[in-house]
Structure formats: structure tokens, C-alpha cells
Write a structure and sequence with these properties.
Layout: E1 2-10, H1 16-28, E2 37-41, E3 58-64, H2 67-74, H3 77-86, E4 90-99
Antiparallel strand pairs: 1-3, 1-4, 2-3
């Protein structure tokens, strides 16, 4: 299994409607055939610690059965639609891909 964790820092000028559109765009990625499951989230209200970074706006977590599914997702047309529609709203994106048993 693989978890594709994507952290987004968005342009501060986005409206509430644009943020809702962005959330819907992330959720649409869950329906891509190679995605086993997905979740989105926002920073938790946990206490500040030197090792914690909660400055991001949104996090996207996609699970894949195998690395090959992840690789197919990266070139999937629906993933490209998401990138094309929303990348101008990203200030920063940070990705962590993790394999687990």
C-alpha cells in the first residue's frame, strides 16, 4: 500500500466559493479508478511544537494498492484536469509518498 500525502498552501485571496470549488476538485480525485480511497483535511488545532507544521491550508491523502497505481494516477486525465484547474491557486505544494504494509 502507498499513501500519497499532498499539502497545499493556497493564495490568501481565494474566496470561500473558490475554496469550496477546490475541496470539490480534491474529492473528485477519489473516483479515479486506481485510487483505493481518499480523504481531505485541514490543520488540526493541536498545540504548537517545534516539530509540527500546521501552516498548510489543505491536505489530501490518497491510498493506492501498489506503486504502479500511484504512477497511473499521476498521468490520469482526471488528475491533469485537477492540476490544470487549480495549480494557479497553489502558493506551495509539498508531497510525501509513503509505502506501508
Amino acid at each position: 500500500m502507498l499513501i500519497h500525502s499532498v499539502y497545499f498552501w493556497l493564495d490568501e485571496s481565494l474566496s470561500s466559493a473558490q475554496k469550496a470549488e477546490f475541496e470539490a476538485g480534491m474529492k473528485a480525485l477519489f473516483s479515479i479508478d486506481v485510487v483505493a480511497s481518499g480523504e481531505i483535511g485541514t490543520p488540526a488545532a493541536t498545540p504548537e511544537r517545534p516539530v509540527t507544521n500546521n501552516t498548510f491550508d489543505y491536505a489530501l491523502f490518497l491510498k493506492f494498492e501498489k506503486v504502479e497505481d500511484h504512477n497511473a494516477y499521476q498521468i490520469h486525465p482526471d488528475h491533469q484536469v485537477f492540476v490544470d484547474n487549480f495549480s494557479q491557486w497553489f502558493k506551495t505544494v509539498q508531497i510525501y509518498d509513503t509505502e506501508y504494509a
